[in-house]
């Protein structure tokens, strides 16, 4: 696991964000076992308390679950998984809109360009 940490946000928040991104991309499957708190801390070279806090928050958000002494796993709750994906899409769209609004481009033109680029990117990915 590799995360590029910034100096702006708390580390545990960045760990949670990374997990959300991996879930949204489908890299983490529902029910998949994730590293223990100690393993995560070692992998990321962070304090074990930071990993513990991230896991605690993710459990409260319903992103992960831990049953008894079993390893922690990604949630199987389809509603939570869908909401994580929607959250990631919304954040990306908002960033895009904020940047595009500054040049006063009509929505119809923006949508046309986005569709062309999306289709071109999809074709490149298939090849």
Automatic annotation (TrEMBL):
Alphabetized InterPro entries for the sequence: Tscrpt_reg_HTH_GntR, WH-like_DNA-bd_sf, WH_DNA-bd_sf
UniProt keyword Heme present: no
Ranges for domain HTH gntR-type: 9-77
Keyword terms: DNA-binding, Transcription, Transcription regulation
GO MF, any single term: DNA-binding transcription factor activity
Keyword Transcription regulation: yes
Protein name: GntR family transcriptional regulator
């Amino acid at each position: 696991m590799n995360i590029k940490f910034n100096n702006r946000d708390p580390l545990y928040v960045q760990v949670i964000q990374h997990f959300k991104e991996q879930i949204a991309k489908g890299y983490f499957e529902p029910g998949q076992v994730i590293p223990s708190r100690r393993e995560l801390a070692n992998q990321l070279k962070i304090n074990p308390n930071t990993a513990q806090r991230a896991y605690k928050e993710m459990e409260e958000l319903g992103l992960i679950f831990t049953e008894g002494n079993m390893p922690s796993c990604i949630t199987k709750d389809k509603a939570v998984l869908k909401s994580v994906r929607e959250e990631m899409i919304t954040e990306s769209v908002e960033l895009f809109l904020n940047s595009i609004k500054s040049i006063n481009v009509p929505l119809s033109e923006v949508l046309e360009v986005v569709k062309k680029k999306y289709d071109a990117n999809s074709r490149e990915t298939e090849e």
